[in-house]
Design brief:
Helix 8 packs antiparallel against helix 9, helix 13 runs parallel beside helix 14 and helix 17 packs across helix 18. The strands form 6 sheets. The chain has a 6-stranded mixed β-sheet. Strands 11-10-12-13-9-14 form a 6-stranded parallel β-sheet. It has 4 domains: about 120 residues, YaeB-like fold, CATH 3.30.2310.20; about 70 residues, no CATH class; about 210 residues, Rossmann fold (3-Layer(aba) Sandwich), CATH 3.40.50.300; about 120 residues, P-loop containing nucleotide triphosphate hydrolases (Rossmann fold). It is globular and about 80 Å long. The chain has 23 helices and 23 strands. The protein is an alpha/beta fold. GO terms for molecular function: 3'-5' DNA helicase activity; ATP binding; DNA binding; hydrolase activity. Keywords: ATP-binding, Helicase, Hydrolase, Nucleotide-binding. One of its GO terms (biological process) is recombinational repair. It comes from Nonomuraea zeae. This is DNA helicase UvrD.
Length: about 600
């Protein structure tokens, strides 16, 4: 029986086909898995740069491109016949000799580039000072080494990026900008999906390489697995190596903190960690976040990720305020009022919940009796906005044991006035970082970093957290900033923009409109009457993402709101206002539109 692995682009390409073609392709793949009569068979590609590449006839006029080694098939794409043959001839595939992951090369384009590099080559190559052995030790491909030796400028390396696997380009980019061999190795090593793998890599073993590449391949042993991969959102199936390494680690001896910029996949990592603990942990799991709205969003996404009902029931999703409310309600036999006579503030309820929990479970500092705690594992999303009292409550809700707390957050996206170092609340977390944004294009990432201010901010561990080093995986549209003479013309421009996006085929649910104040949100909704797009305050966009986002009223006096006079309070409020705008801007996956009437916000980059 064939062992079939699906590539990450294939499900989306399949879903874009006409329904009859898509149906026939799925039937063909099911037959292929079962190896029955009528199943498609691999056809060799004349002129292929990689002899292992073949095509499968999946539907009338459409073929899949596979990389084949014995009974292993890696399905890369589905295209109309001529395009499939061209794709199959264009690419070659390999295994990185240092870390063992699969690599795809645009071999045809590289062949065209080589003469240009030769013509522009100077007397000294950029990497002349580095011997072949050191370059090969960084996993650089031996067959491509002569090409790399022709590189004379950092611009040459940047131009080659679209044609090279990231595990080839990233070490070269580090060396090109003057980085050391050790720095280049760290860049490569970050693409391991599993910690602790040692020993030689068999560059001829495609199956082992695919298993090491969760972002590139998902094996489907049967029809059910195939249907799940084809129908589930990509984030459910294909994890980037840093995300996979953190989410699927077998065991953490201490609390873990994962810090990452916008679009780096912190929430996806948290969701997968919760699912992993549900399957392999030793007790109930709490996935907690900043607000009830975000908790509902996470719960819905967890429903997509965990298909097994028994495993899904092992994960409870909540926010810290509701957790405190529930503990107090259970102890007192009724829901405590938040308004009126006898009302307590949320901070008072949190402190009371901590007191009640300490009475019920004790203050265990080891794993003597973890069953006395309400949860065995706690996963925290949006950690930067959890208050110190809430952190103490969460710390008390799980035993001090391995895999107790897994925390993700970004201090630069803080929208409250909370400042806390986890060590100060009894959580000595070990920090890991995600620095590659998979959601934001580089143009948008550069814009929002300048908007936010790239300087450090107080972190979740002792010290400061900087934005230096974040980068994107792809390029895209530059953000649009539009100035209008009047609020009325600004709202008219908003409607025109949203109507053009809908006309482009962007689904209404993939468009969001944001404003700083509820009044401006109401104005936007009136201007968009009849257009079913979401309109919210900046804060209520937190944790969500959309294909295109429009932000209105980003004007002086509105963003930021009037600030207090006291210097320290003013500085904190200014940072919070920057963070709120930063969070709203980073909800966009592909396009960001910002408008204002009158003078623009001082936060907007020049």
């Amino acid at each position: 029986m064939p062992r079939l692995a699906i590539g990450p682009e294939f499900p989306g390409e399949l879903s874009a086909l006409a329904q009859p073609v898509r149906r026939d392709a799925v039937v063909a793949l099911r037959r292929f898995l079962l190896n029955v009569s009528g199943a498609p068979h691999p056809e060799r590609v004349r002129g292929a740069r990689d002899p292992r590449v073949a095509t499968l006839r999946l539907a009338e006029g459409h073929r899949g491109v596979v990389v084949r080694q014995r009974d292993v098939y890696w399905l890369r794409t589905v295209l109309p016949g001529p395009d499939a043959w061209s794709y199959a001839r264009r690419h070659r595939y390999g295994v990185n000799p240092a870390i063992g992951v699969v690599e795809e090369w645009d071999a045809e384009a590289l062949e065209r580039v080589e003469p240009a590099l030769r013509r522009s080559a100077r007397s000294h190559g950029l990497f002349d000072a580095i011997c072949d052995g050191d370059l090969l030790g960084l996993g650089l491909d031996a067959h491509a080494l002569p090409l790399f030796r022709l590189i004379t400028t950092e611009a040459d390396v940047a131009a080659l990026e679209p044609l090279l696997p990231p595990t080839q380009h990233l070490p070269l980019a580090v060396l090109a900008r003057g980085g050391s061999l050790a720095e280049a190795w760290r860049e490569l090593d970050a693409w391991r999906a599993t910690e602790g793998e040692t020993g030689p890599v068999d560059s001829e073993d495609l199956y082992a390489a695919l298993l090491r590449s969760p972002d590139q391949a998902a094996f489907v042993p049967d029809k059910l697995a195939l249907d799940r991969v084809l129908n589930a959102p990509s984030w459910c199936t294909f994890l980037y190596p840093p995300q996979h390494r953190l989410a699927r680690a077998a065991r953490y001896e201490h609390p873990v903190l994962v810090v990452g910029g916008a679009g780096t996949g912190k929430t996806v990592t948290a969701l997968h960690r919760a699912a992993h603990l549900a399957a392999h942990g030793s007790g109930p799991v709490l996935l907690v976040t900043f607000s009830q709205g975000l908790a509902e969003e996470l719960s819905a996404r967890l429903d997509q990720l965990i298909e097994d009902d028994i495993l899904r029931k092992r994960v409870e999703v909540d926010n810290a305020e509701r957790l405190a409310m529930r503990i107090v309600s259970d102890a007192e036999g009724r829901r405590p009022p938040l308004v009126g006579p006898g009302a307590r503030s949320l901070a008072e309820l949190t402190n009371e919940a901590l007191r009640l929990l300490s009475i019920a479970t004790g203050d265990l500092l080891d794993d003597v009796d973890p069953g006395r705690k309400p949860y065995r594992h706690i996963v925290v999303d949006e950690a930067q906005d959890i208050s110190p009292a809430q952190w103490r409550l969460l710390r008390a809700a799980a035993p001090h044991a391995h895999d107790d707390l897994f925390v993700v957050g970004d201090p630069h996206q803080r929208v409250t006035d909370t400042r806390v170092a986890l060590g100060a609340v009894g959580i000595p977390a070990l920090q890991h970082s995600l620095r590659l944004s998979y959601r934001l294009p580089q143009e948008l990432l550069s814009f929002v970093v300048r908007l936010r201010g790239g300087g450090p901010t107080s972190g979740l561990v002792k010290g400061m957290t900087e934005m230096y080093g974040y980068r994107a995986t792809h390029n895209g549209e530059r953000p649009m900033v539009r100035a209008y003479d009047t609020p009325e013309s600004e709202l008219a421009g908003l409607r025109t923009t949203v109507e053009s996006w809908l006309a482009d085929g962007v689904p209404a649910e993939e468009i969001a409109v944001g404003a700083r104040t509820p009044r401006l949100v109401r104005d936007a909704r009136r201007a968009l009457t009849g257009l079913s797009v979401r309109a919210s305050t900046f804060q209520h966009l937190k944790g969500l993402e959309f294909e295109r986002v429009a932000l209105i009223g980003v004007a002086e006096g509105v963003v930021p709101e009037p600030l207090p006079d006291e210097p320290e309070a003013r500085a904190r409020a200014l940072q919070r206002e920057r963070s709120i705008l930063f969070v709203a801007c980073t909800r966009a996956r592909s396009m960001l539109y910002i408008s204002h009437s009158g003078r623009g916000s001082p936060f907007l980059p020049l």
